[in-house]
Amino acid sequence: MNPNHFSRVHRILHWTIALGILLALFTAFLHATWMNSNGMATTISSSLAEKNITLSNADAKDVAKAIRKPMFQWHFYAGYALIALLILRFIDTFVNGHKFISPFAKEITPKQKLQGSLYVFLYTAVTIILLLGLFLKFGPRNELRETVATIHIYCGYGIGLFVLAHFAGLWLGENTTDKGIVSKMINGG
After folding, report:
1. Is 138 a residue whose pLDDT tops 80?
2. What was the pLDDT predicted at 1?
3. Which 8-state DSSP code applies to residue 175?
4. CA separation (Å) from 28 to 15, 36, 164?
5. How far apart, in whole angstroms, are the C-alpha atoms of residue 121 and residue 160?
6. pTM for the full predicted model
């Protein structure tokens, strides 16, 4: 990779993949926290009880799921977009050569080995999470589903940690030896 120049295609793919990942992480976070069906059902039941309206817990959960469904659709849209973007990224890498330093190269520094390893991790985790997401959306409702969902969630945690490490690395680079790396990813270098 030439760290002094990033092609237009590389930059577009970088930023659209980043937006897709952030959207998927954000919607998953909302789904698991503020818009959790159990918590929302409790809030709905409590609010209605103040007006002397009773609703079973099952019905309150159904209302909660109906409220959060449009938000969570964006999780699926992000996933579909990421599948297309990942395919384009792999095509770009194949056509234009490697766009990252291989962590297996012998002549690289420990910093470059870490950077390369993190990118191998990212693309592996993104590939796995997308394949598992397709299984969860379209696959059979069987005993394997719970295991697949757990792996899908843990891959999401790993990708979230990568995002934090990426931001930390950018901050460190901008404040030490790699000044201008962010502007190079915006304007090409």
Report:
1. yes
2. 45
3. T
4. 20, 10, 16
5. 12
6. 0.88
What is the spatial distance between Cα 3 and Cα 189, in angstroms, rounded to a whole number? Answer: 8
What six digits make up the tokens of 24? 């998927």
SS3 of 4, please? Answer: coil
Q: Which amino acid is at 161?
A: L
Give the dihedral sign, CA 12/15/19/22.
positive
The whole-chain average pLDDT of the chain stands at 91
Q: What's the full length of the chain, in residues? A: 189
Tell me which residue of 46, 24, 31 sits closest to 162, measured CA to CA.
24
What are the pLDDT digits (tens) for 97-114? 766 788 988 889 998 899
Report whether 137 contacts 97 (CB < 8 A).
no
DSSP 100: S
